[in-house]
Design goal:
Length: 166
Amino acid sequence: MTLSLAVEGGRMKRTILMVAMSALLAASPAIAQQAPATGHDAALAKRLGADEHGMRKFVLVVLKTGPTRVPEGDARKAMFAGHFANMERLSKEGKLVVAGPFSNDPAGWRGLFVFAVDDIEEAKKLVATDPVIEKGEMVAEYHAWYSSAALVMIPELHTKLESKAP
């Protein structure tokens, strides 16, 4: 399978490739259990929005440090509580399929979202609902991305791996 990356820059490509490969490796056992012996599961492909190549459109969002750092304290705690609640809501709605932080990135990269939406404008509307964006703690960079439709299964699979109850 070939993963098409619609983004420039070696570092971003490596990061995206790592996310995609991790997702595919995590999803492959579940897909194998559901797929018929021929390998193609038309019902699963339809449910995940896959095209004839097993791929679909996504929007990749890189969250970077914004212009307004919210100071330590209750306001910052509330902002991040809202950030996590917003991600949970978007995941339950089937829009957010992958999210996670970067570790102490000197270039200001804070986190990543992958949305199962067809265009950047829809992703911008979803990201605008996040308190870290509203407060200016982070800014978002958007990229159209074409990848395996199996990524849509990540939230479902994640709940099976999580041992801590929400």
